[in-house]
Amino acid sequence: MGNSARILVASNRGPVSYTVRPDGTLDSRRGGGGLVSGLSAIGPDAGALWVCAALSDGDREAVRQGRTEPGSRMISVPPDVFHAAYNDIANSVLWFVHHMLYQTPLEPVFDEEFRGHWDAYRAYNTAFADALAEDAAEGAAVLVQDYHLALVPALLRQRRPDLRIGHFSHTPWAPPDYFRLLPDDIAAELLTGILGADRAAFLTRRWAAGFAACCAAVLGAEVSGDGSAVTVEGRTTRLGVHGLGADAAFLRERAHRADVAERIEQLRSEAGPGRRLIVRVDRTELSKNIVRGLLAYRQLLRDHPGWRERVVHVAFAYPSRQDLALYRSYTEEVARVAGEINEEFGTRDWQPVMLKVDDDFARSLAAYRLADVALVNPIRDGMNLVAKEVPVVSDNGVALVLSREAGAFEELASDAITVNPYDIRQTSAALNAALTMPEAERAERTKRLADAATALPPSKWFLDQLEALGG
């Protein structure tokens, strides 16, 4: 493309993925999500380019053949470099730090092997910085996404000081004491990487404040009185907050298609007539806290026997990162605990937990529509869109049980029943309160939750960032 894009987005995953057909030709599949919506909102004539990584063998083959989609550029790094950067650093170190997931007596161990992985992460970020520098027009706006690409802003600034650079973190940001588990030089490199941006943005004020506090603790940065800027060695980076909301128009249209109606009938049939539904829809991601949610449901059935045979916990736990052993064992633990509950309480015509692990978006939307209670209890979550999506498509009103550690807490807490995600007794009591909430109150709360959830839909979320950057 070469020095002509006026707006650029950089992210690990792009808008298109490729698979190689048996005959050697390529099959392409378009994805969805907030960035796709956002980029479409700026229109086809804006001179926009999406720079992303080749994630699979099919993607790498597409790059080798020169296959590109209009408005996107896929960059290919050697598979071993990608694996180390993505699995060993982004998903096994940075994700764990920001979600505070380490069992610290045994992990992390930052040894020579880690240093080799970090070199790969740096090389991966450098490949992005090179591609962006090559394709950006003079004075272009560049929006760099997430923890995979934390070093890109500073690397890009070195190459192209004329650009307006933003970085957005979709995860939480760890407080200084936890962030400083990282080796001092790596912690400083990460922060300095993001501070190469003109503006660093986050999903909530809490995560922005965490980043600023880390800059002060690790780099000796000066933080403005209102927390809106960080200055290091005379250079200032502005901080911003953009709470990503649900795409109401898309969800409501999609939730009323025929395949969702079919899934509704299936779920009703499987749960049994007249039973209340406690619904959760998550990936089997360690931070989502699925096991404690199951334990709280078990406590509900023990403490309130009157709910037995009258309620079903619909738990959709879709496999995530199954190439990592820890995630595979976590997924197995979810299934084991669900099985235990069914063994303890199940009867001939009542299965207390309906666990599904095969990903089915239409079925998720069906569960959203039917849910009497939505359980969203993450240990820590940048935002959590499920908490926002369920109220938007609910048929008869839903009571939301929400962890105070979800980013969505900042916007939804006043109309949710909030919990400490580690407290089984409190979560069990919250489930009971949700199930017994009067219908009128549940309807009123659902309306307010839906309004809050859709305040910043993906297209506006993206355009607000662009505007704040001066794009």
Describe this structure as you would to a colleague.
The protein has helices at residues 34-41, 57-64, 79-98, 112-135, 152-159, 176-179, 184-194, 205-219, 248-254, 258-271, 290-303, 325-345, 361-370, 386-393, 409-412, 424-435, 439-453, 458-468; strands spanning 5-11, 16-20, 26-30, 48-53, 72-75, 136-145, 164-169, 199-202, 222-223, 229-232, 235-241, 276-283, 311-318, 353-356, 373-376, 399-403, 417-419. α11 (290-303) crosses α16. It is an alpha/beta fold. The longest helix has 24 residues, at 112-135.
Secondary structure: elements and pairs:
Layout: E1 5-11, E2 16-20, E3 26-30, H1 34-41, E4 48-53, H2 57-64, E5 72-75, H3 79-98, H4 112-135, E6 136-145, H5 152-159, E7 164-169, H6 176-179, H7 184-194, E8 199-202, H8 205-219, E9 222-223, E10 229-232, E11 235-241, H9 248-254, H10 258-271, E12 276-283, H11 290-303, E13 311-318, H12 325-345, E14 353-356, H13 361-370, E15 373-376, H14 386-393, E16 399-403, H15 409-412, E17 417-419, H16 424-435, H17 439-453, H18 458-468
Parallel strand pairs: 1-4, 1-6, 4-5, 6-7, 7-8, 8-11, 12-13, 12-15, 13-14, 15-16, 16-17
Antiparallel strand pairs: 2-3, 9-10, 10-11
Helix pairs in contact: 1-18, 3-4, 4-5, 7-8, 10-13, 11-12, 11-16, 14-17
